[in-house]
Amino acid sequence: MEKAIFTNLCMIYDDQGQVLVQNRTSRHWPGVTFPGGHIEDQESFIESTIREVKEETGLDISDLELCGLKQWPTDKGERYVVILYKTNCFTGELTSSNEGEVFWVKKEELKNYPLAEDFEMMLGMFEHEFSEFYYYKDNDDFKIKLL
């Protein structure tokens, strides 16, 4: 039986064309991306996203829209899955965490920042250009399918 690791990312946007980003300090996936994290045992995907956003940004979010999935095989034979959401429903005071500084940026200016690896390719899912970002192994090389 295949084991899986589930995580999430959430694009929070406002009515002025801005998105909330986090400059991640993690050595595993550093750079500017959207807030998110691991889904805990016995936690729903949406509730985990709400929790992670609150922990990393101080904001309370609601009315999440499912945008797509990113997945790849790990070296340990697991499937690593990132569930992507977006919302423009938020309240609270923006606060950074030890995960990284959070700040608003115009969506079209994202490419001017040091983005996390492959994050720029993922942006199409938030705009419904495709639904799945799938890494697969072809011999020893990773290939990408955008479905």
The total of beta strands comes to 11
Number of domains: 1
- Termini separation (Å)? 25 Å
The CATH topology: Nucleoside Triphosphate Pyrophosphohydrolase
The helical percent reads 10-25%
Rg on CA atoms, Å: 15 Å
Given helix and strand content, the structural type is mainly beta
The main β sheet shows up as:
6 strands, mixed
The CATH architecture name reads Alpha-Beta Complex
CATH class: Alpha Beta
Q: Looking at the structure, what is the overall shape?
A: globular
Number of helices: 2
The CATH homologous superfamily name equals Nucleoside Triphosphate Pyrophosphohydrolase
Order of helices and strands: EEEEHEEEEEHEE
Low-confidence stretches: none
Major sheet strand order? 4-1-7-6-10-11
In percent, how much strand structure appears in the residues? over 45%
Q: What do the pLDDT scores average to?
A: 96
Summary of the model, kept short:
This protein has helices at 45-57, 119-126; strands spanning 3-12, 18-24, 31-33, 36-38, 59-62, 65-73, 78-87, 89-92, 100-106, 132-138, 141-146. With 147 residues, the chain is mainly beta.
